[in-house]
């Protein structure tokens, strides 16, 4: 069912929230009449933060206007007349609103569609079929929304009590004024004759006694009202603090954890709009309660009555200020993290968002955000509230940005689009630590006022740890540091402490997440693949996965110490495989054509029982980022020298397999053309503009089974060293125009 059809079935609070997504910025009528068209457009293909994609947004805006105008023209009859005028008006309105800022239209529609989908999903989970269970997330969301409703009722209850108190106090003051008037009349009797004075004084004294008795009783009543109200407020604030803890310490922290895992290839964090809606409800409720406390304080100052209320109000004031301070400082977050491997002299971006900025009207005086890079030690001092004098560990260009309010989405954010790290100042390293293990962080800070300059907040937030590099060759080791930190850090840690060793299954989970993300596939690492990696990591030959479950791997084993007999670490080997696959062989992995994680002995065992000329593809043990072909021939198994990225830039894997006539079946028994033919290069084409397109074929050097003179040290067979050198020369030769190749002579 289309999303809009489902959205129209929402009820109650969900329907109200859906309707609130629309307004002058995007009328609900446009959503209704263009529902199918809107849902079919590639909104997700446009990044509203990237100004270079404005032309895409402009094209979508123009198409939307045309679609509205077309729909308006097709309206006929009496009923269609008004709709025709209305749709034409909306077309003009949207063009006027977004013509100069089409990216805002994309932002608005993405926001609407995302929230509609979320509301529909929540409703489907809640109203699951009879006997069905509500999933944990929806149950949690229900509980949060139910608590907000309870807080609303409690706040309304104290509001009603506050009005009663105010009314009672006003009546008390009137009666008190009456007692003063009676006393003034008694005082004025001194000028009257004695007989008349005694008669009138007796009456006034009686009236004064009655009023004073009432005032005494009413003063005690008012004192009790104040005490009861303050205690009610105390309960409301306790519930409010508990709800805030759930949202900030559970939900927001979980969102940040998902954001960190997304840096390792985990699913995108999502859900920030839901968090903002909750935080805005918190801000609303906190502010209402704060205003109520202020009003009670005003009433007590207006009519001081000795009692314990003053002390209780002072505590309430401290509590509510603490609650709002926690909300403000916790909701200043990094929506889009800077790159965690940060190269100097290279442009990078980041986005900071203030979740309650719109609700607290901070955008009325837009604050400026500053970004500086600090070391791990400086970050530790900052978390401990030690004075760091805001020293930085480097220079960032374009590091100031004013927060912008997007009315369509209600978000207040600062988009740093063109930052660049000009210089980095490194600290003294510990022991065997290398520069690619040194962690920094980008500190974002700002200052703003809330409540008409009543409260001033200085807010700070730290990015995920970043590793600074100056050359691309450091990227591999820097990525290892980032992956380990993202995978194994604990919430609330001291920056940026991570365990030095982890259980092997934990590391497997991190490696699998990263690998699937790089392959852009659901085909991750199988149990057999992970056993192969364990054998490599621990120099163990066991094929039983259970033997590795309790083993631990240290950081040194992961990326400091070389594998036995090799010149590279475990991570460097694994990362080399990912890089090769990502750049050249991703499609073949996703097709299941590459086994990859198979050692030489396993390949031999697998191929010996297969027909001649059956082959498989496995990753090289001896070379980073290498893949080799193993095949069976006359009851023997042969291995080609590994191919690397350098080789595949000249000729693809599929073409190389096509060229090798002695390869017939991909393990276990698939004809190679069935698997690889769709990746073969098209046949040689005719010359164009005097050029002949170069064509290079891969051939294998003849060999003798009885000779091992062409074996590499690991027993891999070199079939193309000279062939590759010749291929490169031929390729360069064929790139020349025909008339230049033979000194101007053509044959």
Characterise this structure.
The C terminus is likely disordered. This protein is α+β, with helices and mostly antiparallel strands and 747 residues long. 52% of the residues lie in helices and 13% in strands. Strand 15 and strand 16 form a beta hairpin.
Radius of gyration: 37 Å
- The span between the termini is 67 Å
SS content category? alpha+beta
What is the chains' assembly state?
single chain
In short:
By secondary structure, this protein is α+β, with helices and mostly antiparallel strands. The protein contains 23 helices and 18 strands. It holds the Pfam family STAT_bind.
Question: Top keywords for this entry?
Answer:
747 residues, alpha+beta, five-stranded antiparallel sheet, five-stranded mixed sheet, 52% helix, 13% strand, disordered C terminus, transcription, phosphoprotein
Break the fold down into its secondary structure elements and pairings.
Blueprint: H1 3-7, H2 12-19, H3 28-33, H4 35-40, H5 54-73, H6 77-98, H7 102-126, H8 136-188, H9 194-262, H10 272-302, H11 309-330, E1 332-336, E2 341-343, E3 347-354, E4 368-375, H12 376-383, E5 394-397, E6 400-402, E7 404-406, E8 411-424, E9 440-450, E10 455-462, E11 467-469, H13 475-488, E12 501-503, H14 504-519, H15 527-538, E13 552-554, H16 555-559, H17 570-591, H18 600-608, E14 614-619, E15 627-633, E16 636-639, H19 645-648, H20 653-659, E17 665-666, E18 670-671, H21 672-676, H22 721-734, H23 738-741
Parallel strand pairs: 2-11, 14-17
Antiparallel strand pairs: 1-3, 3-8, 4-6, 4-9, 5-8, 7-8, 9-10, 12-13, 14-15, 15-16, 17-18
Helix pairs in contact: 5-6, 5-7, 8-9, 8-10, 9-10, 9-11, 10-11, 13-14
